[in-house]
Write the structure tokens for this entry.
Amino acid sequence: MDATGLELTYADGTQAVRGVDLRVPEGEFFGFLGPNGAGKTTTIKVLATLLSPTAGDVSVNGFDVATDPRAVRESIGYMAQETSVDPELTAEENIRFACEAYGVPKADRADRIADLLDLVDLADVADKRADEFSGGMKKRLDAATALVHRPPLVFLDEPTTGLDPKARNRLWEYFEDINDRGTTIFLTTQYLEEADALCDRLAVILDGEIVADGSPTDLKRRVGGEVLEVSLEDGADAHERAAAIAEDMAVFGDAAVETTDDGITVTSEAARQHGTDLLVALRDADLVVTGFNVRAPTLDDVFLAITGEHLDADVTDDAVTDGAMTDAVDGEAGR
Ligand SMILES: Nc1ncnc2c1ncn2[C@@H]1O[C@H](COP(=O)(O)OP(=O)(O)OP(=O)(O)O)[C@@H](O)[C@H]1O
């Protein structure tokens, strides 16, 4: 898909997406990362023809969203943030219904349904009603219904939000599986770990604009160097003093220094080489170091470097607990 100068302003004047350029080649696992309200869903809805862009050119699978929206819709899968499974129907019936809606030829339906139930690991509960399913199972069923017409490109809008880590990991497997089979994936997420684990390439959106893009490795490299984590005794005052000392040390160049709950972090090319110099300087200032670690940057460091803020969407915060199905049925613990 290709978008140039994409803009979407809502009727109330909210400029949700402002001049976005995006190109996702065939076969890529692409991640669209950003905090709540950054413009991810708005962008995906334009790409899936659910909203008309206010400005810009967008083509999906070679079809223009403005002039050929029907062809676009027939050539994509779309998994919305809210699951679209019908709780009154069984897993199999939900997929059968999607087959009818997407016009899958009658002769192909039985095989297609069996394949998809297998793919999302719901074959054993094919005859159970979806209202008995856990949040993770409903999401997997939803993913299956988005794939019935074998689209070459699938849009997944925050598919794992609210799921516990185990349910989330199972969904990841299916996404990787369909990507391995050649399906292009456009995934929005606010989970850095998810983006890192799955995506070949990422774009970070903030306030409707793309502020960075590249592979997870590229983005981490751009942070520059490694991250030195120093834990300190005492409270915020000591952390501030330690941060000031690190900032004054010429060996760290223009390092990014941040205070944390435990102490400070220093991100610098010289983190490893001059870490001990920092420890000596802190000791000389009567600051007591209780821990010390040098690590590679994470995507959270990337986000911090770009935006000055952490993207702290913790996947376990609001883990889905609905659904009556037991772990024994689904094998999905920790709900
Ligand atoms: N129908 C609407 N009318 C007016 N403003 C809207 C509408 N839908 C979304 N917005 C606003 O547009 C901006 C982008 O929202 P969007 O839902 O695209 O963000 P998002 O990155 O998907 O966030 P989330 O993770 O919360 O879904 C936000 O400021 C949001 O409040």
Observations:
- The CA atoms of residues 124 and 217 lie 39 Å apart.
